[in-house]
From TrEMBL:
InterPro entries: DHBP_synth_RibB-like_a/b_dom (IPR017945), Sua5-like_dom (IPR006070), Sua5/YwlC_C (IPR038385), Sua5_C (IPR005145), T(6)A37_SUA5 (IPR010923), TC-AMP_synthase_SUA5 (IPR050156)
Domain of life assignment: Bacteria
Protein name: Threonylcarbamoyl-AMP synthase
Compartment(s): Cytoplasm
Assigned protein family: Belongs to the SUA5 family.
Length: 326
């Protein structure tokens, strides 16, 4: 009882502090169910400019706007039938919808990088929801890491990347999903812009039709989603995917029970999920990449991961982590 009460009071105090910092144009890192986000007041262009600077994020890469419920989202963007069906099925939760901006959209233009569309999400994490309620407005929140680096799944990861660059970190423990939200563009035909915490199959079941892929030409303009930036989610170490053996000195990131030739010479070994569970693997992915990086490994070899369910998002992040930097 006592412990519960203390925790509740503590959380109320931190929520109030977070709302105060946001109101004053400050930057607050807080947990969502997917990854930790770095929040700023979505209506405050100066705060958003600070946010881009703190992350070292290019200003052509737009932000996700977080709100408390569908009604708040409808003040910001225009919802068609498909968008409403998806919001109804998956909010609050790890889904982001890209929609046409509404007529009186209160979000600062800087957050959308000059696009006439806007990305919206209703997070499910109780701390995120408390902060949204306490603040009372929309909050832009990219993942709370330095731009291009691995997304944070604990408050310690946030501290490692952003300590001294932001005003407050609210620690809600390790996150649940571990991989960012799925981004669906609700255009003529709904398109998968970034695989994430909700699988393609679950979304297609609600839509009753297959998701489109973004037009290939889209890569020439501003990126539709940072899923489209070749190098992203990147550790320092080189990554070698679909490894069937291990070279001397390589670190191993395994999935399922594996026994590779050369495993006895591994500099470090971590397993995303020994039982081969993709949900568990998603939750462990970014933490394992950070830990293997911190072990000083020059190369991280990764065993194959099936492409179904959350495997699509895991493989997407691994490919971006492996892409040449710069
Ligand atoms: O799970 C998540 O989505 C986390 C948590 C904190 O909510 N946030 C997150 O934000 O992953 P970030 O900034 O790391 O990724 C946002 C993605 C970027 O790839 C950006 O390009 C895309 O959303 N995006 C934002 N607005 C867009 C728009 N109007 N059209 C297309 N893509 C957009
Ligand atoms: Mg990010």
């Amino acid at each position: 009882m006592t412990v519960d009460l203390t925790t509740t009071i503590q959380r109320a105090g931190e929520t109030a502090a977070a709302a105060r910092v946001l109101r004053n144009g400050g930057l607050v890192a807080f947990p969502t169910e997917t990854v930790y986000g770095l929040g700023a007041d979505a209506a405050n262009a100066e705060a958003i400019a600070r946010l881009y600077r703190a992350k070292g994020r290019p200003a052509f890469n737009p932000l996700i706007v977080h709100v408390g419920d569908v009604a708040a989202a409808q003040h910001i963007a225009r919802f068609g039938a498909a968008a409403l069906a998806l919001a109804d099925a998956f909010w609050p939760g790890p889904l982001t919808l890209v929609l046409p901006k509404g007529a009186n959209c209160p979000v600062a233009d800087l957050a959308t990088a000059g696009l006439d569309t806007i990305a919206l999400r209703v997070p499910a994490h109780p701390v995120a929801r408390d902060i949204l309620r306490g603040f009372g407005g929309a909050i832009v929140a990219p993942s709370a890491n330095l731009s291009g680096h691995v997304s944070p799944t604990t408050a310690a990861h946030v501290r490692h990347d952003l300590d001294g660059r932001i005003d407050l970190i609210v620690d809600g423990g390790p996150v649940d999903v571990g991989i960012e939200s799925t981004i669906v563009g609700c255009f003529d035909r709904p398109a998968l812009l970034r695989p994430g915490g909700i699988s393609r199959a679950d979304i297609e079941r609600v839509l009753g039709s297959p998701l489109a892929s973004p037009a290939p030409g889209a890569a020439d303009g501003p990126p539709l989603a940072s899923g489209m930036l070749a190098s992203h989610y990147a550790p320092r170490a080189r990554m070698r995917l679909n490894a069937a053996n291990l070279a001397p000195g390589e670190a191993l990131l395994a999935f399922g029970r594996v026994d590779l030739p050369g495993i006895d010479t591994a500099s470090a070994v971590m397993n995303l999920s020994e039982s081969g569970d993709l949900k568990e693997a998603a939750a462990h992915l970014f933490g394992c990449l950070r830990a293997l990086d911190a072990s000083g490994a020059r190369t991280i070899a990764v065993t194959p991961i099936p492409e179904d369910g959350l495997g699509e998002a895991i493989n997407d992040r691994l490919r971006r982590a492996a892409a040449p930097k710069g």
